[in-house]
Design goal:
- This protein is an alpha/beta fold.
- Helix content is about 50%, strand content about 15%.
- It has a single domain, classed as P-loop containing nucleotide triphosphate hydrolases (Rossmann fold, 3-Layer(aba) Sandwich).
- A 5-stranded parallel sheet has the order 4-8-3-9-10, sandwiched between helices. The chain has a 3-stranded antiparallel sheet with strand order 5-6-7, covered by helices on one side.
- The longest helix has 22 residues.
- The protein starts with a strand and ends with a helix.
- It binds 2'-deoxycytidine-5'-monophosphate (DC).
């Protein structure tokens, strides 16, 4: 008997195959910036009837705390204590869920340029990463049907995840997407300049000692350079459902 169910609801899942409502599942999506990862992860979660966790928002929140509370780069201990005290959590009644620190919504703050510039520094702090990974596992315990998106979700946070994706794309295409996404005037920054920034950030993300950006051996790698977002989502949904069905069949 098939373990995949067809949704009859009126949402975007209508008529599509989905994951049965009572089946726990974690799907990880990792990869560099500009691959469409966040949008894809959110739409995939919606398509399959799962919750969506944006772990980048957690690191961005930590960077915002660092800037707004005036911590210097040599005050990482104090910063980590502040982030722990902030009790970062998401408001799951929002779509996509929004992040709060000290019970105050900070979603509007975390996408600013100064935060984006500081986040690679924050994401290198091992103690902070351990705290974030612990939090991500607690979130999964509370939301056992989850698409979790980041840099280390399949490699560190959820190494046993049954479905792992790694999205990649040509750096120039990623740069153009980022410019479009941020609405940057081409007079102020060229696509080549943005591409250099992106490559620099990839380098920082890939070479840090703790939780570096890597493609896990058992992840399915998808190049999104030539694909529209909807095509990526459909591809991932099909692959995920096949994998879930396979796992169910292999159970005695
Ligand atoms: O996906 P994003 O641009 O919102 O991520 C912001 C930063 O956080 C980026 O520099 C990589 C880092 N990050 C991380 O180190 N580990 C994660 N699981 C998610 C994001």
């Amino acid at each position: 008997m098939s373990t995949i169910t067809k949704s009859t609801s009126t949402d975007t899942r209508e008529g599509h195959d989905t994951v049965p409502d009572d089946q726990p599942i974690i799907i990880t999506i990792d990869g560099p910036a500009g691959t469409g990862k966040s949008t894809v992860a959110r739409l995939l979660a919606e398509r399959l009837g799962l919750d969506f966790l944006d772990t980048g928002a957690m690191y961005r929140a930590a960077a915002a705390i660092m800037i707004d509370r005036g911590y210097e780069e040599d005050e990482t201990g104090e910063l980590v204590s502040a982030v722990i005290g902030a009790d970062l959590h998401f408001d799951w009644s929002q779509d996509p869920p929004t992040i709060l620190a000290w019970d105050t919504p900070i979603d509007h703050r975390i996408r600013s340029n100064d935060v984006t510039d500081r986040v690679s520094f924050v994401a290198k702090i091992s103690e902070l990463r351990h705290h974030m990974v612990r939090k991500q596992r607690i979130i999964w315990a509370q939301h056992p049907r989850l698409v979790s998106e980041g840099r280390d979700q399949g490699s560190v946070a959820f190494p046993d995840a049954p479905v792992k994706f790694y999205l990649d794309a040509d750096p120039m295409i990623r740069a153009q997407r980022r410019i479009d996404q941020l609405g940057i005037d081409p007079e102020t920054m060229t696509v080549e300049e943005m591409c250099e920034r992106i490559i620099h950030r990839d380098e920082l993300d890939s070479t840090r000692s703790d939780g570096p950006l890597v493609c896990p051996d058992d992840a399915i790698r998808i190049d999104t350079s030539e694909l529209e977002i909807d095509e990526v989502v459909e591809k991932l949904a099909t692959l995920a459902l096949e994998r879930i069905e396979q796992i169910a069949r292999s159970k005695p």
